[in-house]
Amino acid sequence: MRSAFFTPIAKPLMATLAALLFLAHALCPATALAQGAQNAEGDEYDLDFEIPEAETPNPFNLWGRVEQRSIARFLDTDALLYKQRFYNEPQDSLLADFLLSLKPEVSYKWTEVGLYARPRFDIAWSEAKRGGTAPDEPSEEFLRDEEHWASQVLLEEGFATWRPSHAFTLEAGKKVLNWGKGYAWNPVAFVSRPKDVDDPDYARQGYVLAYADYIKSFQGPLTNVAFTPVLVPVDEDVNADLADDGSLVYAGKLYFLLMDTDIDLLFATGEDYDTRYGLDFSRNLSSNLEIHGEAALRLDYDKTLTDEQGNLRTERYDAYSFLLGLRYLNAYDTTFILEYYHNGEGYSPGEMDDYFTLIENGYQQYLETGNDRLLKRSTLAGQDFNQSSVGRNYLYFRVSQKEPFDILYLTPTLTVIANLGDHSFSINPEVSYLIRSDLELRTRLIMPFGPEKSEFGEKLQDARTEFWITYFF
Amino acid sequence: MRNAHKFILALILALGLAQPAWSAQAIDGDELLRTIDRNLAPESYESYRKLINIEPDGSKREYTLYTVKKGQDRIASVFLAPTSDKGRATLRLGENMWLHIPNVGKPVRITSLQSVTGGIFNNADIMRLDFHVEYTVEGVEDKSESHLLRLKAKTREVAYDRLEMLVDKQALLPTEIRCLAASGMLIKTLYFKKPTDFGDGFMRPAVIETDSPLHKGYKSVMIFAKVQRRDLPDEVFTLNYLPRVESLRQ
């Protein structure tokens, strides 16, 4: 049942926000000028020479951020994923979501021991009926019986550190291990949750694990070596999406800085867990050009496939994935990132076509008979096929301009993500502006394009606009 | 005799004209540059810095960094303020530079021409190595109370192809540095101000101010505090240690 109170408010509000989306760029310089009129001090300025942070550090620290995110989804009612999800519950073409997140960070340091925690408190309202999120432990969900409201508390990171020397560290708790050199994808990030390719910089929650870190420095072409062994337990509620219940995953990373090149050798193995090996590298080719790459091999990978009738089967093979990327900065402070990603675990255009045909057949069957059996089978397959970046070959291109027109702290960005197999793509323009040192505005638009039965062509939404306000404390 | 007078006159003129250049040549430019480096900071040290970006309208944005440096080419910094940047850490090993953003991703390689703070200071200014590591002295000129050092970058990887450094003869510290591109274009000028005693008789300018013809009306200022000698193990200057640099504060 729709919310009678919020729907009439949400629609015009979202429409207003959508209109404001692309005006943000123009508003930002206007804001700067307005500040200038109030603060103009001529050529002279006063400097505060005090640096309070230089005093003896406080062992206890508390800081963090509050994020408010407003989202407008312009649904594509002809898309197969729309038909799959809303076949018996038609939606208006514009849906709104609001999300408020509080993310405090707290740390405590006492001689060789340190504690750190980053919990997250979310409360969200969504015009569409919400599905369960079932976050890993420790977490707690609230408002479970509400159709449009959702709330949860979870721990994104929380760990204890023991550092007996500068060369050795031991950490245990929930932690994000950022392995890999790629910006949009990291096929070698064996013990991390996948990035959101639409927002690779967004903080993720970690896995519960324990790891050690030993560093050794040398003189000569081999400058640094570091070894990081990791233990990751898996049970019903902890790290459940990583491996089967009861597994213990062993992983490790051996890092070298060799002849000005970062090189990592990585592995992960365990009971009921596909063994994986990886390699990555990164190097500056010049003062404004960087090259990076990753390669990963997953042994005995079981890929779930479906035919047009929803019969699921698995195919076992060794999946080889790799990524190659460049980062280039030109004289105008424009940064270009280009990455090619081959996803060895991904689906070919033909396999995706079978899946989309299953939805198409299921929807047709539902229209003709009222029987939704095939659509429900497609939903089961969708647990794999509806994930992000499920294709085989991708190209990622991102261009961001730092402080255009001398407007400090303004960064417009344009991102294009293309599935090379089915010729579909997504264009994401974005503008962020640090309006004050503790207040950031960010707005973006995500527009998928593509032919029928292609990844981006069948997305649920024609477009999605987002407006973020982040306050740092 | 007339020829002898001419010869003596020519000799006097030649010696007279040649003297300033000869005097300057008597100074070992590279040695002078090393002295300037040591006068600016101990080879291994820790410090706190405040970076202030000032916009044409007078509005300001401030950042506070804690920095450690070891030897000629190892430097690491972490942002202590504002909270939007807290925990961001940078590492430089020679020409290799990385930026670590907490909660977001792994350390990414950055370049000397980028700026982690915005404003006129770029990464090469914020993570500056000793001048003599990156530059050779092409010439030293006598400018009354100052030396003018003309410096040329040793490699193309260095942020500025040439520097013109005005050095106070008494203190042997820079008072002004003009940073030039290979084309000769002025990129920015650094002004060294407010000589301050940081203890143990160590005195250096506490303020570096910069402006740029490429960003008219904008200024950036760097203020130093608690610059003090500190020896740290090499392992601190590694990618794995980068997220923990703040733990070095005492």
Structure in words:
The complex is a heterodimer of chains A (473) and B (250). Chain A is α+β, with helices and mostly antiparallel strands. Chain A has helices at 6-21, 24-39, 80-86, 349-369, 373-385; strands spanning 60-75, 94-110, 113-126, 139-142, 149-165, 168-175, 207-217, 222-233, 248-258, 261-270, 273-286, 289-306, 312-329, 334-342, 393-401, 410-419, 424-436, 439-449, 461-472. Chain A has 5 helices and 19 strands. In chain A, strand 7 (207-217) and strand 8 form a beta hairpin. In chain A, 33% of the residues are buried. With 250 residues, chain B is an alpha+beta fold. Chain B starts with a helix and ends in a 21-residue tail after the last strand. In chain B, strands 6-5-4-3-2-1-13-12-11-10-9-8-7 form a 13-stranded antiparallel beta sheet. In chain B, strand 1 and strand 2 form a beta hairpin. Chain B has 4 helices and 13 strands. At the A-B interface, helix 2, strand 1, strand 5, strand 7 and strand 8 of A face strand 1, strand 2 and strand 13 of B.
Which short descriptors sum up this protein?
heterodimer, A: 473 residues, alpha+beta, 18-stranded antiparallel barrel, 5 helices, globular, disordered N terminus, B: 250 residues, 13-stranded antiparallel sheet, 4 helices, 42% strand
